[in-house]
Amino acid sequence: MHTGTIEARSSINRSPGIGFMARTDKKKWIVADSAAGRVVCREELLEIQDDVRHSWRLDRASARVSRQPVNGTAAMTRNVHRAFRILWKVEDIAAIVVLCTMTVLAATNAVSRIITTIEIPAAGIYIQELNLALTFLGAIAATRAGRHLTLTTGHGLSSGRVGKFAVLLGGALGGAVAALLAWASWNFTRSMMDSPVVLPGGVPQWVFLLVIPLGFLGISLHFFFKDRSLVRGLMVAVPAAGVLMLLPHLPGGHYEAAPWVAIGLLVLSGFLGTPIFILMTGIAMILFVGQDVPITAVPAATYSIVTSPNLHVIPLFAFAGYLLARGGASRRLIALFSAWFGWMPGGIAVVTALVCAFFTTFTGASGVTILGLGGLLLPLLIEAGYPAGFSLGLLTAAGSLGMLFPPSLPVILYGVRANVSIIDMFLGGIVPGVFLLLVVSGYGVYMGARYKVPRPGFTWGKAFHSLWIARYEVLLPVVLFSGLFGGVVNLGEAAALTVLYVLFVECVLTRELRLTVDVPAVALECAIVVGALMIIFGAALGLTDYLVDAEIPHRLTAWAVATVHEKWLFILVLNVVLLVVGSLMEGFSAIVILVPLITPIGTAFGFDPVHLGILFLANLEAGFLLPPIGLNLFLSSMRFERPLASMYKPVLPFLLLVFAVVLVISYVPEVTLVFLR
Fold it and tell me: Of the four listed, 10, 155, 464, 552, which is most buried by Cβ atoms within 10 Å?
């Protein structure tokens, strides 16, 4: 039975004898008969706030409705909730405004430079500072919505007591660590006020730095109070935070293991759903305190990475991808690829692979592709005559096919994290990405011929008509790549111009999106995803700084070189490790955590940085399909409402094909480096 508060609709008719509608927290509508004084449902407890002065209450025993005055405490609670809702609205509007301002400023600067050769003064600096604001506004919204990335993202948690305990623990630890970060960030900001740096235009840098302590404070409050049950967690979180920070200073030799016990508890909480950025910042602070290093090093690292020159391209390209996914581009592209490739044996399978690759390329997430396009493509495959198992396997595998193509977000993230040229990473991913797409499509052609799937005839008229209908989507990669690789615009400007191009197409030419309704909703969704991602990036750099100071990558590299003597054996071991990691972790999390450890070892074995990066990403793509808990398996299980175990057999052929391609990429570096030599 669900217990909770019911918010009455604004259109309630409260006249005697007339029923009214109410909505539960789970958004299920129920009907109450006010004349009979009974509620036609099986809810254990119902409370409908009539107005500030009265409420409708359902008695648990008799199930009778009575109208009662609201006491002062309830009225105050109602007003507090109303104030919180207003604050949440302000946070959301601020995130939307910041993202749109970044887009307009970057695009305007590009157009001005191309036409007049004059750039907007300090445009790049202010875009980077706005990216800092977007990161924390998005992270606050992600905390409120429960959207932070975890080690179990996509895998879910057990229901019942385990799930409730995981929520309580995650909220308590999240609130405690975020509160400590807010305090450390304020000390960092205050130190910058003592010797202020003035940005071009006369704005002190500390004005933007205030975003960090305010952002962590907002995250902390949302962790504590986003659910009433978490208020009890506050009593656990405050002493827990103190214990975590005091453990490294306990006297006596037998307490030397105390910090590692605390770290072990944090890691354990990670497998119960505690956000990754909380794990990394908590571990970093414990380690820094143990080395007598001020914990202000963590927010300082966050500021340095989030405001780095190339990182703002992530929210801009993500914005363009989400606009495409929300608009009508999917229907037009399906019609286009069907007209041009549907005549082939297995043509619909090829169409599925191409459409999924396109959307994954621009959204950077297999979840958007599987959840967004699965409902459109699965009926097409089954109606064409493909077996249901093959169709499910193809959609599950195709969900991440575009991960190696520019401007895929994982490619950008790897480039930033490994300090490798993003343009080189884009060039390095083209041939492996095409190879992978051809292999999966080829299997679809084979299955189409095997099951004698009917093929529609090819007509030039239909083909060119579909090309005309989808002309704007077809031109998008052409415009993007010609400007980017032609040296006309830089990466950030290309991302901003891509957003404006998609906005113009979807809002003006095709009118699939409404500028004042749909676009703000897409911008907010993008801000939440980007905030959840970028806050991890900042947390990871703080932890990486400690690892570098402790020479952990150097020691790990020395151990690998001493243990594994042959490069081919190292490649095989690396592939297996990354394959397993890809099945256990969400892709962005794996990039952030593992890249600083893998990169030095790869360099020691003579890997080209771009080759290592593409190998890394391709392994993650294969890992998403690896039973029992590959991310794409969970996404498909959820989207198509099938038991998770039923997804293993359909996906197995695609897993073998993708891993075979990974081995080719691993042992034949020319596949990756053909455009770089």
Answer: 155
